[in-house]
């Protein structure tokens, strides 16, 4: 819980009464590896703060291939925020890559926080902006770089994930085949 409170306090000032209220609206959720936090075709149920583990955002392209477009690890928010807020069906999956533990907020709880805690909407906006900037920062170099450089960037941006994430997911994230990733890894050693 302390990690969550420290995270949100980076984006605004809240007193103990406010943080206690926010925490009172949270539940703990544990997922096993490969379980879904959110699924395409269903309305997202939660906004989560990842206390332990790694998740990935993925979808299926028009050829039926699974594409991983981002990873999130500990002490970060996890949500399909736009669809959660508007309560419409998701078009992508959020899947546990490892066993995961979250603090989660239902739509009702999230709205109660927004309607009760003075300044929460501003904090929420800054958190969302931060998450979006991180995603763009991590994805942008992948568009213009060759596969080896993309892999080296992945190692730089996600040093702790290499040993925790299946190579198939990393290859998908990098936009290459698993065989190509194996060759790149072999040539780097």
UniProtKB/TrEMBL annotation:
Domain Cyclic nucleotide-binding: 30-113
Source organism (scientific name): Mucilaginibacter pedocola
Full protein name: Cyclic nucleotide-binding protein
Transmembrane segments: none
């Amino acid at each position: 819980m302390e990690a969550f409170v420290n995270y949100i306090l980076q984006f605004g000032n809240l007193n103990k009464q406010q943080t206690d209220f926010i925490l009172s609206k949270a539940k703990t959720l544990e997922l096993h590896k490969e379980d879904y936090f959110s699924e395409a075709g269903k309305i997202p149920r939660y906004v989560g703060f990842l206390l332990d583990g790694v998740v990935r955002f993925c979808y299926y392209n028009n050829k039926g291939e699974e594409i991983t477009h981002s990873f999130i690890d500990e002490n970060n928010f996890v949500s399909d925020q736009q669809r959660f807020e508007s309560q419409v069906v998701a078009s992508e999956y959020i899947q546990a890559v490892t066993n995961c533990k979250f603090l989660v907020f239902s739509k009702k709880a999230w709205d109660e926080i927004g309607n009760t805690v003075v300044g929460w909407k501003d904090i929420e906006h800054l958190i969302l902006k931060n998450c979006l900037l991180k995603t763009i920062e991590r994805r942008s170099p992948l568009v213009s770089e060759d596969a080896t450089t993309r892999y080296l960037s992945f190692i730089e941006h996600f040093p702790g994930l290499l040993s925790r994430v299946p190579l198939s997911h990393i290859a998908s994230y990098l936009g290459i085949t698993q065989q190509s990733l194996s060759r790149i890894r072999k040539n780097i050693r």
